[in-house]
Design goal:
Strand content: 15-25%
CATH class: Alpha Beta
Radius of gyration: 16 Å
CATH superfamily: Vaccinia Virus protein VP39
Order of helices and strands: HHEHEHEEHEHHHEE
Number of helices: 8
Strand order of the largest sheet: 3-2-1-4-5-7-6
CATH architecture: 3-Layer(aba) Sandwich
């Protein structure tokens, strides 16, 4: 099945509201657990960059799981960042270690030249040019920095996309159901991601199927 693009940014208020108030505790906690399992529960220190952070739920969970790090999250959606800043005001325990940046990469200049860890969840499939993500990883990651990129992978057919949508988001609001379905159609296959990494000089990163709908790119920067 050929890839079907979706908009790169979630700029609508209805989308931002739905994502900001949805219960993503299970998948986002799983993201943290898989990161920790991948890197043997090592102590994370320094600065973490979350690319495509949305309203920041994973940032908050990561900061609470790793008490010695600070996290910068970037997202191009002003609406998403607005919700994230609102939630951050209520997160007194981590407020001083989490910062939101509104802007589009690679044009936006980040506050640090290099980061000690790079993470991203469900961002790659939004990009019309996927090399943007890998170029940012290569530019901003410190040598030996852990990289953990999780995203959807494209199903083999429309029927499979429909079945995955029914299985995992049938009880979610309509906007989330539609977004999940279209995101599946916009996602990349494993072979395509491997080719992207080869083009960018990141072939040393591993690409692994994580579930019937997810793929993980991980490893240490050289």
């Amino acid at each position: 099945m050929d890839r079907i693009f979706e908009p790169e940014l979630m700029v609508g208020e209805d989308q931002a509201h739905a994502y900001a108030h949805a219960d993503f505790s299970e998948p986002h906690n799983n993201f943290i657990k898989m990161f920790q399992g991948q890197y043997c529960n090592r102590e994370i220190e320094g600065y973490v960059l979350d690319i495509g952070c949305g309203p920041g739920d994973i940032m908050f969970r990561f900061a609470r799981a790793h008490h010695k790090c600070s996290i910068h999250g970037i997202d191009g959606s002003e609406a998403m960042i607005r919700y994230g800043l609102k939630f951050l005001e209520e997160a007194g325990d981590i407020r001083h270690r989490v910062a939101f940046i509104q802007g589009v990469l690679p044009e936006k200049i980040l506050p640090r030249e290099k980061y000690d860890v790079i993470i991203s969840n469900s961002f790659l499939h939004h990009l019309h040019n996927p090399q943007v993500l890998w170029d940012v990883v290569r530019k901003y990651a410190m040598p030996a920095a852990p990289v953990f990129i999780m995203d959807l992978r494209r199903p083999k057919s429309i029927d499979e996309a429909c079945q995955l949508t029914k299985t995992y988001v049938a009880n979610e609001p309509e906007v989330l159901r539609k977004d999940f379905y279209h995101s599946l159609l916009a996602a990349f296959e494993v072979e395509e991601i491997i080719e992207q990494l080869e083009i960018t000089g990141l072939r040393h990163l591993s690409v692994n199927i994580a579930s019937d709908r997810h793929v993980i790119v991980s490893g240490f920067m050289k």
